[in-house]
Amino acid sequence: MRHIVLEEAGLLSVYYDGPILDLLTLGTLQIELQGMADRVALALLARDGLIDVDKPWLLFRKPQPFIRPRSTGRSATDDVVPVRVMCQRIRSESPLEQDMIFMIPALLADPNARAVLQGIAANILTGIGATGLRGLTSTFRWSSSPLQHSVDLGPEVRRLAMALAKNANGQRARLRIAQTQGNQRLEIELEIEPDER
What we know:
This protein has four helices and nine strands, in the order ββαββββααβαββ. It is of the alpha+beta class. It has one domain. Strands 1, 2, 5, 6, 7, 8 and 9 form a seven-stranded antiparallel beta sheet that branches. It has a two-stranded antiparallel ribbon with strand order 3-4.
């Protein structure tokens, strides 16, 4: 399936400062960020009536195949990837820095879908901030929440925080995810505190 860059969404920047990440933790970071993007994109498209929430693999409520769910006994939305989060730049020294862009299937190149998805990065950060996880701070908020009904990103955020804490092995670690759009910036930071033993 052909994908095109969603320039309107801007960059999502990730900064990690802490003990060197093992491959499992690095993979967890990437997988959970992709999972958050999927859930937010589906919520945005459903909110504006561009997909049927019961059959998200069908776009625009037409019998046009988008992504067919695998028959693994999992939810149909587990296999729907409306947005690909692509690593545009990565610097792997400590601190780890990466900039990610969003790509959408050519089927979603419809101007209405592009307009709805342009706020995906801000919605991911707003969803992370709404989890209320201990150690999570937001340094600046948008003047209004882009997604009126927040998507529960708690499971993804908890899995990510647990992986980072395990990798930190009792040391301090910080994960910062930021997005700048125009003159507004939203930044979320998760701090893993060192053990006090």
